[in-house]
Amino acid sequence: MALGSYGRSHQRQSYYYHLADTRIYIQGLDFESTLGNPTLATSIEAVTVNGLDFESTIGNINIRTNIQINGLDFLSTLGNLTVSETFSVAQIGHDADSFFQSRQAETNPQSIVRQFTYNNSEFSDRITRYPTVKRNYVDVVGKGFTVNVENASKLMNELIEDRTAFKRDGAVFYGYKSDTNSNNVLQIGNGFLTNVNYSDHEATLTFKNRLDLLSQTFVSQDVTSKQGVSFTGSEWNPADLTFEILTNNSYGANFSSVTCKYNAQIHYDSWLQWKTNLAAENITVQGFFPYGTNYVQALKSIAELTDSAIYAEADNRIYFLRNLTGVESFSAVVSESDVLKCSTTGDAYDMCNKYSVPMSFTVVSNKVEGPRATCTFVNTASVNSFGASLKGPTTQMIWYTNSANANNLAGRVVFRRRQPEIAVKVTTPIKYLTQQLGDIIYLNLPEVGLVDQPYTMIGQTIDVENQTMDMDLSVGHGIGIANVTVFELGDDILGRLDNTTGVLG
């Protein structure tokens, strides 16, 4: 296996905590001058106040999302307490350090470690079967996973006795023992407990990721008049529109609006890069999300109209990608010696050499009307070779207001899908965990006529129990493309920019 250069300025441990703010604010009380300077331990389990034995004076303190003190009504005694959000940052694919990468490159790596935690407690020694974790960005859907835990001990009966135990985090890790006392692991799956089934002294726990929950959450919260959510009157960078509906309290998701990497729900760095890429191409939209539109439907529409990937990664945060020429830093080479199983699928039905983008809709009486114009991009060479194959967006929740933006989308789609797709699925040992969705995979599989061919990984299935993984690879639906020129004016192969129809009136 050949890996690209990672170019890390520093290496990080596999799992760590970040405390965003160590201050405690209590309404109506100068906490600092009264009790001293408070310091939160990195274990997030205790509060130490200089000059005061806080525990023996007030009681045991337990900090999670709130503060509880044994024998004291802390809220009524001291006032409202606000603790800044604390978020544990899990290390996933691209975060792998040099030690992890070197073990991944080995044919038969030693000292393999598999871990499972539930509600931040270790359950690895109770696992009877580890899960299969799936991710795919094409359909913007959530993929859950199940873990089998022994229950002869009746440990998992707490879920029956205490229903608040549901919706807590479960996480799956895979890696290698780095020394006698520590492990070097990546998180490969995370979700919220939604279902448990008891049978034969086992408990089967089902975890759903953040997109699963968003599929049950509506953008509009107007249950009285059932008004949709409108973004007209001005034009929006699609990234800003997305951040607005995810974080503004007027809408249903109520995600964190923290604008740094410690946002627990949105992978802020990927969102910011996405916004930057869209702004560089002057991509702007308007939109309308009818009442009853859930977030998966809304995000799918945004992804489709911007030629982007929106999905939940292994850390259960929402990621955003829009690559035109793929980033080589995290590319990998897969050869026949790495492959346990391979399947290829040719698909002429999905090809597209004409892409028509409706644009300039209006919102009247709580519904969308239009379009007032249409932009169509045609690859003449492909039409001459295969006949016309016309496609277009499947949703109309956001739209472009000018032909340049519409043509940008159409040209991108036609470029990748102007000929029949040869999609590939390869099954390998679990040795490509440093790759994430959207990364470029070079295939050297002479058996199927593929030599140093670049594909985008659009799906990933990790079988932790059997220690194998599948990679779903595509060009037609791959947002990452290596070493290509997308547009050349007047070139029939790479596209023409002068053949749009439907000029704005």
How would you describe this structure to a colleague?
This protein has eleven helices and 33 strands. By secondary structure, the protein is an alpha+beta fold. A hairpin with a 2-residue loop joins strand 16 (182-199) and strand 17 (202-208). Helix 7 (238-247) packs antiparallel against helix 8 (268-280). The chain is globular, with a radius of gyration of 26 Å.
Query: What is the mean pLDDT?
Result: 82
Helix content: 10-25%
**What is the overall silhouette?**
globular
Structural class: alpha+beta
Cα separation of the termini: 55 Å
**Number of DSSP strand runs:** 33
- Uncertain regions spanning at least 5 consecutive residues: 1-86, 482-505
Number of helices: 11
Query: What percent of residues are in strands?
Result: 35-45%
Number of domains: 4
Q: Which sheet architecture does the biggest sheet show? A: 8 strands, mixed
Question: Helices and strands in order, then pairings?
Answer:
Elements: E1 2-3, E2 15-19, E3 24-26, H1 31-35, E4 38-40, E5 47-49, H2 54-58, E6 61-63, E7 67-69, H3 74-78, E8 81-83, E9 86-90, H4 98-105, E10 112-118, E11 121-122, E12 127-129, E13 132-136, E14 145-150, H5 158-161, E15 169-179, E16 182-199, E17 202-208, H6 210-214, E18 229-236, H7 238-247, H8 268-280, E19 285-289, H9 295-306, E20 309-312, E21 318-321, E22 332-335, E23 341-347, E24 354-359, E25 362-364, E26 367-369, E27 373-378, H10 380-386, E28 390-391, E29 398-399, H11 403-417, E30 421-429, E31 440-445, E32 450-463, E33 468-474
Parallel strand pairs: 22-31, 24-28
Antiparallel strand pairs: 1-22, 2-9, 3-8, 4-5, 6-7, 10-11, 10-15, 12-14, 13-32, 14-17, 15-16, 16-17, 18-19, 19-29, 20-21, 23-30, 24-27, 25-26, 30-33, 31-32, 32-33
Helix pairs in contact: 7-8
